[in-house]
User: Fold this.
Amino acid sequence: MTSAPPQQEPSSADRDADREPDLVPAPDPAPDPGLDPDPGLVPLSAAQEAIWLEQLLHPDEVNGGFLSVLLRGEVTADQVRAACATVCAAHPQTRALVVTRGDDVFLSVRPVAEALEFETVRLPAAEGTERDAARAWYREHRAGPWDLTVRAPVAHALLDHGPGRRTLVLGVHHIAFDGRSKFVFARAFLAALRAERQHPGGQHTGTPAPAAPRATREPVDAAELDSVVGHWLAADLPRLPGLALPRDDASPRAAGAPVLPTPRFDLSATTAARLRELTARADVSMFTGLLAGVAALLHAHGNDRFVLGVPVDTSLPGTRDRIGLQVNVVPCLLDVPPGTTFRRLLAVAGEALATVRRFRRVPFSWVLRELRRRHGVDVTRGAFDGVGVSYPSVAADLGEVPGLDAVWDFFAPNSTRSFDLIVQLRREPDAVYGRLDHAASVLSPAAAARFTDGYARLLARAVEHPDAPLSALVEGHVTAPAAEDLPGPPPQVHGGVAEFQPTARAAALSRRVGPLRLELADPVLGRLGACAWHPDDRLGLWLARPAPGLALRVTTADGRVLPRGVAGRLGHVGDPRPGTFTAWIDGHDRVRLLGDAARVRDWVGRRAVAAEVEFALAALPGVEHAHVDLGRTGADGTPPAPRVRLTLTANTPADNRTWRRAIRRHWPAGWPAPAEVDLGGTAAAPAT
Assistant:
C-alpha cells in the first residue's frame, strides 16, 4: 500500500490552491537511484520494496499507470524519441531493472541505448478523439503483466493519428515513477524536445545531465513506528465493519478488466462556490470538504466506521524536479455516527487529514509488517484497500515548444488496482471534477455511475444545508414492487426462504415445474410475500409476489433508509422496526434476498454473508446440503474460525482435497479459511 493512485502537484502553496499543509515525502532511508548518475546496484527503498513484493504476490496485475501528450504540428518520431532518451538519461531510475542477490533485491541501471523502450504505431483517429483513442490503445495493448527483471519500468509509444497529430503515451510502473513525477517528465520532455528541434543530436547521445539535488529526508525512528502501530491496535481493526457498496447485477461486470473508469463528473459552479465558502469559514482546505463529501456518501450507504486512504503530498520545493520519489498512502479511520451534520463532518475529515500529517513519514508497509509480526493481526488486505481519495491540482508551468501544441492527459484512468475504489478529484481555476476508478469485481459500471452521481448530488445538498443531519440529505429508496406473473403452471410452495438451498434436486424440480415459490415470513414483521427461484434465473432469489399493500424498503440496523442497490435489513414503511432478512433493491425495483441478517459477519474491513456462501456451495454438483458457520471474532481480536459442513449425494466421492479446492473457489475474498470442513460427518483438513 505504499504505492498510490497517480498524484499530481498543486500549482501553488496557499490554501486556496488546496495544498494540505505540512505534508512531506514518504521516508526513503536507502539511497535513491534517481539521484546518482552511476549507482551500480542500489537497494530498493522502503516504498519500492513494498511495490516489488506486491508485484510478486500479484504478477498478473501492473502496479502502475500511464499518461499521454497529444502533439499537434510537425514533429518527427526521431525528435520525440531523442527527447525521451534525454529524460531517461537524466533519471537513471527510469532505466533500472530489478536484480535479486539471494534474499536481497536491488536496482541495476542500464545504458539508455539498452533500456529505452520506444515504438511507433499507426493509429488513425478523427480530430478531437485522439485522447480517447490513446487511452483505449493503452488499455488494450499495454496494461498487461510487467516483468521488472527484464524490462525497464517506463515504456514509450508514439501513436500516429494523421498529418500533424501524434500522441506520445507513457506506461509507467510505480517502482520508478509516482504520479507527481508526471509533471517532472512533462517539463523535462518539453525542454528536451525544444532543444532537439533547435539543435538536433544533442543531449540524448552524451553524458547524462546532472541529477537534481538530494532532498532532505526525515528519519523514522522506532518510537514513531510504535506510535502508528499503537494507533491502529487501539482502533480495534478485527471488528472494523466491511464496506457496504451499491450492487447492480442488471449491468454485467466486465470480465478480465481489473480496473474500470467512470466518465468524468463535474460539480456545479454553485456547489463548488458554496463548498469553497463553507470550508473557508471552517478554516479547512477545499480537499477537506471534498473528502467529507466522500465520507457523507459512504455514510449514506450505511457505513458509520471506515478507512479512507490518502496519498501524502510530495509537491515541495526540494522534490519538485525529482522523478522516482514514491508517495506514501496514509489510511485514515473515520467515525461518522448517525445524526452527524456536514459541518461536523468537515471537522471529522480535518481530523483524518491530521492523521496523514502525523503519520506521513512511516511507510505503511512497515505498519502492516509490525502488526503481523508483533501482534498477529494480518490486515494486508481488507481494511486498507477499500477506498482511496486523491486530490492534486493540475500544474500549468510545463513549458512550450515553438511550432507545437502539446495537450497533456494527466487524468488517464488507472490500469492497476491499488484500492477497490479510487476517487480521483481535481480542481482547476474554473472547475471541480472527478472520476471513479473501480475494481470490476466490486462495482458494475452502472453501480459505479450511480456512485459518482450520488456524490455530486449529495454534496450539492450538503453545502446548501450544512447543519442538517446527513440522514435528512440522503435520498432513501422505498419501493412497492408490482406482483410478477410467473410463467408456467401455478407455482407450488416449497417451504420458507430461510430453509431453502439451490441444490441439484431443487434445480431438477424447478426445471420440471417452473419457478419455485418460497414463503418469506419475517419473525419480527410477519409475512412479506413470496419469493421465486429458478436455476436459470440470473436474479437468484427474489421477492416475486410482495404481500399486498406493503411499501418495502431496505434500512440499516438502526432504521436509516438505504438507497437503491445497497444491502441492508428488509422491512416496510408501515413498521419502523428493521427486519431480520438482508436484501437489496435493484435498478428495476426488484427485491433480492441475501439471507438472515444474523449470519452476516465482519472481519478487518471485509464482510461475508453465510447464506451467499451456502448458495454457492449447495449449487455444486454432488452437494445435497451445505451449512456454513462463519465464526466470530474472538474477545482478544483473534480471527473467526469458520466451519463448513457438506452433505453429499449418494455415490459422490468424498475426496478431501477436491472439496477443499472447490470451497476455496467460492469462499469470500479476504475471509479466514475454514478451520474445519466436514463431508457428511467425515472431517477434512483445513481449507488453506
User: Anything to note?
Assistant: The CA atoms of residues 127 and 165 lie 9 Å apart. DSSP finds 15 helices and 30 strands in the chain. Residues 604-688 form a domain with the GMP Synthetase; Chain A, domain 3 fold (CATH 3.30.300.30).
